[in-house]
Amino acid sequence: MPENSLNLAGFNEDAAENIYENRRRFLKLFEGNWTITGCWQTHSADLRVVHNEHEAQPKPDVLGDDQYCDALISNTPNILLAVKTADCVPILIGDPITRAFAAVHAGWRGTSASIVTRAVQQLHHEYRARAEDLIVAIGPAAKGCCYEVGSEVIRVFKERFKHCEELFLPTRDGHARIDLHRANRDQLVASGVAANKIQTAPLCTMERTDLFFSYRREKSRHGRVGRLMSIIGRR
Predict the structure, then answer these.
(1) Is the dihedral of CA 26, 30, 33, 36 positive or negative?
(2) pTM of the prediction?
(3) pLDDT band at 182, cuts 50/70/90?
């Protein structure tokens, strides 16, 4: 249950005081003053640029986030861009040259809409970051060993991507398991990111519910699911 663990998001499934207390404890891991900046995730391909510390501050009297998007980029010091997941793919991108950075939330909808490609492009547009300089971490998510999707998802990927058959492992009629880790990695490489600069966590949230929240595994069992938080920032 989210209230009995270090749940960092999901105000509709846990008490706000629990989430804020967990975030306070989490921030104690970092030296100095940091601000967590997130977004209300909608499984879109929309991005938000956080230009300065003022834009990073949460709105007073607003519970959770009031900016609707699924990726954040910035180069502002002492803010932590954050995305929340419980099976979707968290992707963190940093540029050691310009010191710009991004946090991306990529479920199957965001992945099929190439949100990580858009993040790489936006980093270049805003901060002149070059794809070949970027360092990327792809975090724990529902992997191809467990994440089964139906014909709707399969059709969308086949319409939008050539040679996407390798992402799918057929399971039953009209269904297959999909590897979203690989799909996002492929998009990063196609965008110009060096393959040896992309690190992918070898962990499945659906398989390891002892370590991670999993919406697909836990929602039907418990009714409520917490959220993991992946963050990136610069001093």
Answers:
(1) negative
(2) 0.93
(3) very high
Q: φ, ψ for residue 91 (rounded to 5)?
A: -130, 125
**Domain around 96:** 2-142+195-232
Contact 105, 228 (CB under 8 A): no
CA 108/CA 204 separation, integer angstroms: 15
Closest CA to 160 of 108, 196, 123, 198: 108
Q: Which amino acid, one-letter code, is at 144?
A: G
Pairing of strands 168-172, 89-94: unpaired
User: Which pLDDT score, from 0 to 100, does residue 6 have?
Assistant: 79
In a domain, 167, yes or no: no
CATH number assigned to the domain comprising residue 203: 3.60.140.10
Structural domain tally of the chain? 1
